[in-house]
Amino acid sequence: MANLFNGNPASHADANPGAPGNGSGPRWATGFHDHLKLPSGATIGQTDNEKLRSQLARLGIEGANTEGRNIICARYAAVLQRVFDEAGNAPVTAFLESKKG
Hints:
Elements: H1 49-58, H2 69-98
């Protein structure tokens, strides 16, 4: 039989581009809000479902224990956006008030 391998046959064990490399396991798709920080200091992407639901329920996010992960993460993102907007509006309003002529 012909030698189909150059060198050690074991060197081609990971040649399948669709297989996970070096025992790393599958890589799950990232979510749109995975970069957002939680009160625990971890990001959404680093947090498993049970811990995420627990933290979001504690924050009062609607449906944290019943809705899907993407839905509750979008609701959390909306809360953070609202906080961000309110924090930014106060100095802008104060600045505009100080410049009234």
